[in-house]
Amino acid sequence: MPPAAPRGRPSSREAMLDAAVAVTLEQGASRLTLDAVAKRAGVSKGGVMYNFPTKEALLEALLERLTQHNRQAGEAIAAALPDVPGRALQAYVLNSIRDPDDDDRVSGALAAVVNGSPALLKRVAGYFAKRFDVVSQDVPFERAALAYIATEGLWLMELFGVSPFNAVQRSRIVELLTDLAAGRRDALPDRPGHG
């Protein structure tokens, strides 16, 4: 394993992951190659291969970084919430409904690449399973599952720019999801229509 970089400066490995993010955001996941990362990071391909011997190893490290960032953001949100049952579920919902950032855009761009790799897909499935275990540990399964599925659906539709909801409808959905996560609603509203 390469030695740690001095504090304040990113390690060359982190700089290469930064380069991988930049390539993915600027050119798309299909253009994410070891050569493209080397060029963007200003290092030799051998330098990239020292840290990531294959493209799959690079993708695994990138996915790990994305999931770590997501975990840290969720933990920061949870720390600001009251310590009550459902806190982890509330933090998950609040973290997921915020405006998409670069990590979200990279996740969306990598979706097709990950889907083509059984090993990476298994890793992502494991992440979703572990995250659900955490957010559902102290709330009824049905409440956690409904909030989880709806939040993921909203996140994906917005990430891919295909959400059918206007701003008022989105606001109502977010209110419902946060109330559901906090245990403030046991059932969906009875109001018919699309408002």
From TrEMBL:
Keywords (A to Z) from UniProt: DNA-binding
Record carries keyword DNA-binding: yes
Domain named HTH tetR-type: residues: 10-70
Keyword DNA damage in annotation: no
DNA-binding region: 33-52
Domain of life: Bacteria
MF GO annotations: DNA-binding transcription factor activity; transcription cis-regulatory region binding
PROSITE patterns attached to this UniProt entry: HTH_TETR_2
Name used for this protein in its record: Transcriptional regulator, TetR family
